[in-house]
Amino acid sequence: MFKAIIAALVIGFLALGFKSIRPPPPSICGSPGGPPITAPRIQLKDGRHLAYREHGVPKEMAKYKVIFFHGFGSGKHDGSILPPETAEEVGVYLVSFDRPGYGESDPDPKRTMKSIAFDIEELADKLGLGSQFYVIGYSMGGQLVWACLKYIPHRLAGATLIAPVVNYWWPGFPANLSKEAYYEQFPQDQWTLRIAHYLPWLTYWWNTQKFFPSSSVIAGRPKFSEQDVQLITHLSSANMQKVNVKQQGEFESLHRDLMIGFGSWEFDPLDLENPFLDNKGSVHLWMGDSDGLVPVTLQRHIAGRLPWIHYHEVSGGGHLFPYADGMREAIFKTLLFGEK
Question: Is 8 contained in some domain?
């Protein structure tokens, strides 16, 4: 009897443990009981959908067509990277889209950096953006720019990375440099990234358990700089819109972002070659030197290893530096017209 009770308790604890680490199924948009579909979407070859939103001047009138990749916990509504005045002055059409699992875009459990690059190419073709287009990625969205430079460089007219999140496990980083930068993060974020990289099957549990603090970003308490704090008080809700970005579930949006972004990549960005040897395009990397979320030391190393990238370091800039006065205009005009 005693052995039977012990066995039953062990089985019970194992069942509870399995339940706690197994993420719930996503609530797919348009499915019975799921969130409604309210945005325009394109259907990909594999049947999935990407929801998008258009900004700037009408596509038919635009001189420049840009695809924007949103950051962690954001979505297609954040097109505020393009000032309306710049769009009208220069003639810019910008499309932002919900990355897989965010907002109203279907999740992609098989997502890789390579697959998302081809999703982007298909989005451009379905929207009729032409043979070449520009890409801009902010924060976590910057990682998609690396994927485009690797897998679809022939489709790019130019590219900009803004405070792009780095993966501390890229082989091209010197071990001492990446280790030093890694330990500059909050201890709770070190654990979050360590689990996403080494034990991705525990990512859901780690970010939902109550025993230890998990991601400071998910908790809404990231390592913001003094400039970031000042900018937050002036940013309107339109600039920081996060409408229904997690409505299909945090696992397929936030948690899978961590697993892909900090997992083992199929390539090392530091091995990439210049896609614009003909000088008909350029790649730019913008970084604030006071960014508390992304280490500036690693961006400097990237710029040194890849001299074909035009590196712009903003003195006193935090992670939100693009929203400081004049920065968004400078970022766009530098991408479209070259160095000033």
Answer: no
Residue 256's CATH number: 3.40.50.1820
Q: Are 72 and 240 in contact (CB under 8 A)?
A: no
Q: Residue 221 and residue 225: Cα distance in Å, rounded?
A: 12
Round to whole Å and give the CA distance between 202 and 23: 9
pLDDT tens digits, residue range 203-221? 999 999 999 999 999 988 8
* Residue 32 covered by a domain: no
Distance CA 127, CA 41 (A): 10
In the 8-state DSSP scheme, what is residue 184? Answer: T
- CA 99 to each of CA 102, 111, 337: distance values in angstroms, whole numbers, following the listed order: 6, 10, 28
Phi, psi of 107 (to 5 degrees): -65, 160
Domain holding 58, by residue range, is 38-337
Q: Average per-residue pLDDT in the chain?
A: 90
Classify residue 86: in a domain, yes or no.
yes
Do the domain assignments include residue 3? Answer: no
| pLDDT score recorded for residue 15 | 38
List, for residues 295-329, the tens digit of each pLDDT value. 999 999 999 999 999 999 999 999 999 999 999 99
